[in-house]
Amino acid sequence: MKVLVISDTHGSVYYWNKIKKIAEQVDEIFHLGDVLYHGPRNPLPEGYNPKELVEELKKFNINYIRGNCDADVDVKVLGLQEMPKKTMEFFKDIPIYLFHGESIENDNFDVTSFAKNHNVRIILHGHTHIPKIEEKEGIIIANPGSLSLPKGGFPQTYMIIDLSNTPKITIYDLDNKEVLSKTI
Description:
Helices cover 20% and strands 30% of the residues. By secondary structure, the protein is of the alpha/beta class. The longest helix is centred in the first third of the chain and has 11 residues, at 13-23. The radius of gyration is 15 Å and the shape is globular. Keywords: Metal-binding.
């Protein structure tokens, strides 16, 4: 089983098209928020075309998490019934908590305590536009970075969770070069 995890596309159909072939080859796709709107703190990303991005994304079965830049109208144009702010999933038998991540930035969410209290093994979030994979007290906390507006000197990135023989989380740049990885 392979899972594609992306975040912070911010309306860029250009960068989505760069990974569309990868999206066609995975078993599941999760988008961790900030799908269409670029937000008041961000510049327009290359290929900013939310309307065209909607049409491209609708071709895939994507599980969405609502980000701080996502609005009710985004949910409607994407053809969704809802876009939750958080969810708990099981990839095989691994409990994973997914959310956008603005509560981490605001320092009012202790992810490690939350994970321990809810028996979560992996926490996935976006929002910061900075890719990371770290382990704290046995909990893996990972961020795929941003597909369109990276920060911290990083390139545009996406994440693959490969649950085959040796389960592994890997973050790649758009040239499919490994940026970060960790065996689960």
